[in-house]
Design a protein that fits this description.
Strand order of the largest sheet of chain B: 3-2-4-5-7-6-12
CATH topology of the largest domain in chain B: Rossmann fold
CATH topology of chain A: Rossmann fold
Number of strands of chain A: 8
Radius of gyration of chain B: 20 Å
Order of helices and strands of chain B: EHEHEHEHHHEHEHEEEEHEEHEHEHH
CATH architecture of the largest domain in chain B: 3-Layer(aba) Sandwich
CATH superfamily of the largest domain in chain B: Thiamin diphosphate (ThDP)-binding fold, Pyr/PP domains
Structural class of chain A: alpha/beta
Number of domains of chain B: 2
Oligomer: heterodimer
Helix content of chain A: 40-55%
Number of strands of chain B: 14
CATH class of the largest domain in chain B: Alpha Beta
Largest sheet of chain B: 7 strands, mixed
Helix content of chain B: 25-40%
Order of helices and strands of chain A: HHEHHEHEHEEEHHEHEHHH
Distance between the termini of chain B: 37 Å
Chain lengths: 323, 331
C-alpha cells in the first residue's frame, strides 16, 4: 500500500476513526464491568480496520451498511453520534433505538446504517433486499453487508449469494473472519479454510483481504464497490481479522492461547497504520497523543450523556411496534 | 355485480395495487413464467414484466428476507409462499426481522410487506402439506394476520394489506381459490380489524374466519331449519381483532361457538374464547365452545383427513352443548 496515493487528511481520518472505536469499546467494557450495560455486548477491538477501511469506500448519501451484532464500530464510522450509541448501550430513552435495541441493534437510518442485527446471518438477505431496492429504483447506491465467520455456514448466506448473482444486485458481502465463531475455531467447523472460494460456487467475484491493514481493506472494498455501482455485480470479500476480547463480555476466551493473542496484537491495525504514518512523516507521536485525547474525551462525554439520560417511560413498551 | 373466484379476486387486488403504486411488486416461486402454482398471478408477468413479477429459486428464507429488506428500504413487496407449509423455512426472517426491525430500531424503519399464499389443509396431502399455521403468526406482536373467506373480502382486504405500512400475513386456501362470489367492478377496500356479520341471529354466536365459514353457514342453515337462529361473525382479520363485534354479538345471544381449523392448543380459537370469558362472563349462559381440527397431524386417508377437521356435525354438536339441549327440540 502506498500512502502517497492518498490524501493525508484521509489517512489521518482512518486512524482517528479506528482509535475512536477502540476507546469507545474500552469504555463500553468498563461500563459493562460497572453493570451500567447489561446482556450481550460484543466488542470490536482488534477488528477496527475492517469497518473503517470499508466504509471509507462508501458515499452514505446513497450507499447502505448492514451488519450483525458486533456493530458498535460500524455505527460510529457511519456517523452515529457516540452519545446516542452509548446511551443505547445503557438502555436509555436517548439511545439511537430509544433503549429498545441495546448493543446488538444500533440503527441510524439517517446515516444509512440499518442495524445492528442479532441473529447470526439473519440480516444477509435483508441487506440484499436493500440492494434489490437500489436496483429496482435504478439508483446508484451500493450495500455493504458484514457478518462473521460464524455466519458463513448459515443457509441464508448461500441463498442470498445465489440470488444476488442471478439478479446482479449491487452488494458487497464482507465476512469478517475473526477466526472464532463464539468459542469455535473456524478451522474446526469449515470444510474450506479460504472462505473466498465460496464465491466461486455462485460466480460471485471473491477474494481474501488482510483485514488488519486499513488501507488494503479500503482499496479492495473500493474496487468491489465500483464493480457493484457500475456493473451491478455483487462481490464477496473475506477479511482476515482478529478480535482481542472474548465473543461477548461473558467469554474469557480460554479456547485460545496467550501466545496467539500476543502474536495478533503485534499486527494491531491501529498500531500498524500509526507506524506507517509516522514513518512517512505524516504524523508525529504528539499529534497521535492529541488525537487519542480527543477520542477519549468523546467517549467520556458519551458516558456522561448516557448516565444523565432518562430511562424510557413504561408506556414506551407499547410504542414502535406497528407503523 | 360480476361473480368471480377467490383466485381472481386476489389477482385483481394485486393487479390494481401494482397499477396504482410503482413500489408494489410480486415475488415468489413460480409466480412469473409459470403464472403461479395455483394460477393466482396468471397474466401478471405479461402485464408488468420481470422487473415487478419475479420468479425466485426455492429458498424461502432467502427471498422472504430480500422482500423484508426491500420493504425496509421503501418498496412494498407482495411475497408469495407457494404454501404456508413452506413459510416455516422463512420463520426466522418473519419473526426475527419483519416483526422486530421497527421495534429494535426504535421506530426508525417500517416494513410494508404482504406475505401471502394458501394456508391450511387442502386434500390428500398428508401432514407436511396440510397445516393451518395462523396461530403461530398471530402469536407474534409486530405482525398483522388477515384471513378472508369470500372473494369480496379477499380483494378488499388484500388491497388494504398492500397499502398498510406493517408486515401482513395474508392467509388464503387452496380449496377457497375456486370459490365464487360477487365482487363489484368499482374500486373498494376493507379496513383491517373489522369483522363482518355474515348472518344475523339471536340464539347463538358462531365465530369463524377463513375456510370454515362455509361449514358454519351450512350449520346455521341446519339450525335455522330447527328454529335456532345463529349469528355468524366472520373475523376476517385476526390481528387486529375486532373484539367489539365479538362481544356485542355474544352479549346478545349469550352463547358462543368458535370454529377454527387450527389445532386447539394455544390457538386463535382458544384466545378468542378466553377474551370472551373475560369480557362477557356475566352474559354467558354456557361455557364458550371451540371446534377446531383434532390435535393430530393430518393423515393422507380421505375419510380420516375429513374427520380431523371441523365438520358441520361437530359444529351442531357444539351448539347443542352451548344450548344445553339437542338440536330439534327448539321447534
Amino acid at each position: 500500500m502506498d500512502l502517497k496515493n492518498h490524501d493525508t487528511g484521509f489517512l489521518l481520518k482512518l486512524l482517528e476513526q479506528m482509535l475512536l472505536i477502540r476507546r469507545f469499546e474500552e469504555k463500553a467494557a468498563q461500563m459493562y464491568g460497572l453493570r451500567k450495560i447489561g446482556g450481550f455486548c460484543h466488542l470490536y477491538i482488534g477488528q477496527e480496520a475492517v469497518a473503517v477501511g470499508s466504509i471509507a469506500a462508501l458515499d452514505l448519501g446513497k450507499d447502505y451498511v448492514l451488519t450483525g451484532y458486533r456493530d458498535h464500530g460500524h455505527a460510529l464510522v457511519c456517523g452515529m453520534s457516540p452519545n446516542a450509541a452509548m446511551a443505547e448501550l445503557f438502555g436509555k430513552a436517548t439511545g439511537c433505538s430509544k433503549g429498545k435495541g441495546g448493543s446488538m441493534h444500533l440503527f441510524d437510518t439517517e446515516h444509512h446504517m440499518y442495524g445492528g442485527n442479532g441473529i447470526v446471518g439473519g440480516h444477509i438477505p435483508i441487506a440484499a433486499g436493500v440492494a434489490f431496492k437500489i436496483k429496482y429504483n435504478a439508483e446508484a447506491g451500493v450495500v455493504l453487508c458484514y457478518f462473521g465467520d460464524g455466519a458463513i455456514h448459515q443457509g441464508v448466506f448461500h441463498e442470498t449469494l445465489n440470488m444476488a448473482r442471478i439478479w446482479n444486485l449491487p452488494i458487497v458481502f464482507i465476512c469478517e473472519n475473526n477466526q472464532y465463531g463464539m468459542g469455535t475455531d473456524f478451522r474446526r467447523v469449515s470444510s474450506v479454510l479460504d472462505f473466498s472460494v465460496m464465491g466461486g460456487s455462485y460466480e460471485v467475484p471473491a477474494k481474501q483481504v488482510d483485514g488488519m491493514k486499513v488501507l488494503e481493506v479500503y482499496e479492495e472494498t473500493a474496487k468491489a464497490v465500483k464493480l457493484a455501482r457500475e456493473e451491478g455485480m455483487p462481490s464477496f470479500l473475506e477479511m482476515k481479522t482478529y478480535r482481542y476480547r472474548g465473543h461477548s463480555m461473558s467469554d474469557p476466551a480460554r479456547y485460545r492461547t496467550k501466545e496467539e493473542l500476543d502474536e495478533n496484537r503485534r499486527l494491531d491495525p491501529i498500531l500498524m497504520h500509526k507506524q506507517d504514518l509516522i514513518a512517512a512523516g505524516l504524523l508525529t507521536e504528539d499529534e497521535y497523543k492529541a488525537m487519542d485525547k480527543r477520542c477519549i474525551a468523546i467517549c467520556d462525554e458519551a458516558v456522561r450523556y448516557a448516565e444523565e439520560s432518562p430511562e424510557p417511560p413504561l408506556e414506551a413498551m407499547y410504542e414502535d411496534i406497528l407503523a | 355485480m360480476p361473480v368471480i373466484t377467490y383466485r381472481e379476486a386476489i389477482r385483481q387486488a394485486i393487479d390494481e395495487e401494482m397499477a396504482r403504486d410503482e413500489r408494489v411488486f410480486l415475488m415468489g416461486e413460480e409466480v412469473a413464467r409459470y403464472n403461479g402454482a395455483y394460477k393466482v398471478s396468471q397474466g401478471l408477468l405479461d402485464k408488468y414484466g420481470p422487473r415487478r413479477v419475479i420468479d425466485t429459486p426455492i429458498t424461502e428464507a432467502g427471498f422472504t428476507g430480500i422482500g423484508i429488506g426491500a420493504a425496509m428500504a421503501g418498496l412494498r413487496p407482495v411475497v408469495e409462499w407457494m404454501t404456508f407449509n413452506f413459510s416455516l423455512l422463512a420463520l426466522d426472517q418473519v419473526i426475527n426481522n419483519a416483526a422486530k426491525l421497527r421495534h429494535m430500531s426504535g421506530g426508525q424503519v417500517s416494513i410494508p410487506i404482504v406475505f401471502r399464499g394458501p394456508n391450511g389443509p387442502a386434500e390428500y396431502l398428508s401432514s407436511q402439506h396440510s397445516q393451518a399455521l395462523q396461530s403461530l403468526f398471530a402469536h407474534i406482536p409486530g405482525l398483522l394476520v388477515v384471513a378472508p373467506a369470500t372473494p369480496y373480502d379477499a380483494k378488499g382486504l388484500l388491497k388494504t394489506a398492500i397499502r398498510n405500512d406493517n408486515p401482513v400475513v395474508f392467509l388464503e386456501s387452496e380449496l377457497m381459490y375456486s370459490w365464487q362470489g360477487e365482487v363489484p367492478e368499482r374500486e373498494y377496500t376493507i379496513p383491517l380489524g373489522k369483522a363482518d356479520i355474515k348472518r344475523q341471529g339471536r340464539d347463538v354466536t358462531l365465530i369463524t374466519y377463513s375456510k370454515p365459514l362455509k361449514l358454519v353457514q351450512e350449520a346455521a342453515q341446519r339450525l335455522a331449519e330447527t328454529g335456532v337462529e345463529a349469528e355468524i361473525i366472520d373475523l376476517r382479520s385476526i390481528r387486529p381483532l375486532d373484539e367489539e363485534a365479538v362481544y356485542s354479538s355474544v352479549k346478545k345471544t349469550n352463547r358462543c361457538v368458535i370454529v377454527d381449523e387450527t389445532w386447539p392448543f394455544a390457538s386463535v380459537a382458544s384466545h378468542v374464547g378466553w377474551l370472551i370469558s373475560c369480557n362477557c362472563f356475566d352474559y354467558l349462559d354456557a361455557p364458550v365452545e371451540i371446534v377446531t381440527s383434532e390435535d393430530v397431524p393430518m393423515p393422507y386417508n380421505h375419510r380420516l383427513e375429513l374427520e380431523v377437521q371441523p365438520t358441520v356435525e361437530k359444529i351442531l354438536r357444539a351448539v347443542e352443548r352451548a344450548m344445553y339441549k339437542p338440536i330439534g327440540t327448539f321447534q
